[in-house]
Amino acid sequence: MDWFDSLSLIDGPLPVIVVVAGVLGGVWLLVSRSRRYMTRGLPIAATAAVVVTVIGYLIVEKVWRPLPDPIETSIYVWIGVGIASLFAVIPRSVAAHGVVGTLASVVAAVLVVAVSALNINLKFEAYPTVGTALGVEPASRIQFSDVPGAVSRTVTGTPLDSVWTSPAGMPSAGRITSAAIPATASNFSARDAQIYLPPAYFSDPRPLLPVLVLLAGQPGDPEDWLNGGKLAETMDNFARDHAGLAPVVVVADGTGSPIDNPLCVDSPLGNVDTYLSRDVPDWIDSALQVDRNRAHWAIGGLSYGGTCSIQMATNHPDVYPTFLDLSGQREPTLGDRDRTVQQAFGGNSAAFTAINPLDLLKSRQYPDSAGIFVVGSDDNDYKPGQQEMYDVAKAAGMDVQYVEVPGGHSFAVWSEGLRRELPWLATRTGLIS
Fold first, then answer.
1. Which residues are the signal sequence here (predicted)?
2. pLDDT tens-digit profile of 310-368?
3. For residue 137, is it within any domain?
4. Are the beta carbons of 291 and 208 closer than 8 angstroms?
5. 99, 131, 163 - which closes a domain
6. CB 170 within 8 A of CB 244
7. Which phi and psi angles does 212 have, rounded to 5°?
8. In CATH, what number is assigned to the domain containing residue 279?
9. How crowded is residue 404: how many other Cβ atoms within 10 Å of its Cβ?
10. Residue 112 falls inside a structural domain
11. DSSP code at position 409
12. Which secondary-structure segment (H or E) carries 405?
């Protein structure tokens, strides 16, 4: 079934087939010879869908507000379309009469829901293939208990590729695994980290590789970097061109759940700062055989994770002197400054200022830090903030770059941003010359 799992949900024939089938399903639900259905059943279903969607919008955007930024209207429209198709199933089945008509109505609704889901996914490109959408485990995944332990012979040097020769028998691709990182100092309730180990990690002698800590967005999950982020593909391609060398990548959990927003700080919302600056590095040092020189470590992330990466780089430059901020915000936020200060800092504005990257960059110098700000050229919501952060970071003495990638606030930008900037990261962290 590998061929099926690898089918693209972004381009190629499958999205076209789904759209065509969905249109046919929509026609079935919209048209009937039954006057009762056309004048009562269909309008009631459509009205109910609008009401439910509007109520959902009000709860999410005005009451609950789990996300710092509003969800785009087009997403709600597609959600409403899917709901309307489900509401129409029963009256359309009654109008069609019989088992065949009922089956046709159910299938039509499923096809419309599939089109709605497809269009939402096309907006973010979170699931590039059928396999990622279905949660199929990659063939490269292994249990953490199967990761080889420390070896006695290691290879070190800067740049590492100048002293490294790949041995016979080295795997042709890296491996994916996962592990729970104990929150010893922070007591933060984190989900398992996802870990990429390049081919050279499975060699003896083993090169002491640099470390890249990656963070997902909010809402999000560490697995997002394996799906829409195309982490393994990007790293394997890089390793293939560099004798099996690539950074060891640890995708740590920076939120605690798919929808929580603990702002990447230590607060009543969770001690994420301590978790990422102490617990995660301590675990990496003890559980993986890597380069322990923090000058060869980097942190990066997308959206919320991008904001978190610059927070770590400014609050803990000794741990993460290198960062990759992909579509991050100008400051950690729960939607606005007042709400953020009240809920996470007990109303203490000075406490927020003391950890806010924008304020730190205006008051301190970071001559030993470097980073790249990446944003989608069509991401009008996040682009001004990224430009501002770049300007302030440059003024603070950081060696920084500002890069625009075609696209919006989506995995198309974030996966391409990582691929494009990986050579810079590898050079900066002493892996290649």
1. none
2. 999 999 999 999 999 999 999 999 999 999 999 999 999 999 999 999 999 999 999 99
3. no
4. yes
5. 131
6. yes
7. -120, 120
8. 3.40.50.1820
9. 17
10. yes
11. S
12. strand 399-405
With 90 as the cut, is the pLDDT of residue 3 above it? no
User: 83 exposed, middle or buried (CB, 10 Å; 0-12, 13-18, 19+)?
Assistant: buried
pLDDT number for residue 155: 98
Whole-angstrom Cα distance, residue 37 to residue 39?
A: 6
Whether the CB-CB separation of 270 and 262 falls below 8 Å is answered with yes
- Give me the amino acid identity at 285: D
Residue 347 lies in a domain: yes
Residue with tokens 């205006």: 362
Question: What is the Cα–Cα distance from 278 to 319, expressed in whole angstroms?
Answer: 9
Clarify whether residues 268 and 409 are in a common domain. Answer: yes
Question: Who wins on pLDDT, 109 or 66?
Answer: 109
Scored b (16 or more CB within 10 A) or e, 388-400 reads ebbebbeebebeb
Quote the CA–CA distance of 148 and 212 in Å, as a whole number: 20
The tokens describing 216, both together, are: 């997902």
Number of separate domains in the chain:
2
The string of pLDDT tens digits covering residues 130-188 is: 999 999 998 899 999 999 999 999 999 999 999 999 999 999 999 999 999 999 999 99
From 77, 105, 131, give the residue that closes a domain. Answer: 131
Tell me the average pLDDT of the chain: 97
Environment class of residue 73 by beta-carbon count within 10 Å: exposed (0-12), middle (13-18) or buried (19+)?
exposed
55: domain range?
Answer: 2-131
Whole-angstrom Cα distance, residue 392 to residue 93?
Answer: 61
The answer to whether residues 299 and 196 belong to one domain is yes
3-state helix, strand, coil in the chain (%, to 5): 50, 15, 35
- Rounded to two decimals, the pTM is 0.94
Which pLDDT score is estimated for 69? 86
Tell me the C-alpha to C-alpha distance, in Å, between residue 359 and each of 54, 314, 315, 324, 374: 38, 10, 11, 19, 20
C-alpha–C-alpha distance, residues 206 and 171, integer Å: 13
* Residue 433 belongs to some domain of the structure: no
User: At 37, which amino acid appears?
Assistant: Y
H or E, element range at 15: helix 13-30
Look up residue 83 and give its two tokens.
Answer: 């709901």
Q: Domain check: are 113 and 183 in the same one?
A: no
Angle made by CA atoms 323, 324, 328, in degrees to the nearest 5? 115
The answer to whether residues 97 and 177 belong to one domain is no
Same domain, 147 and 80: no
Q: Is residue 173 located within the same domain as residue 226?
A: yes
User: 283 and 263, same structural domain?
Assistant: yes
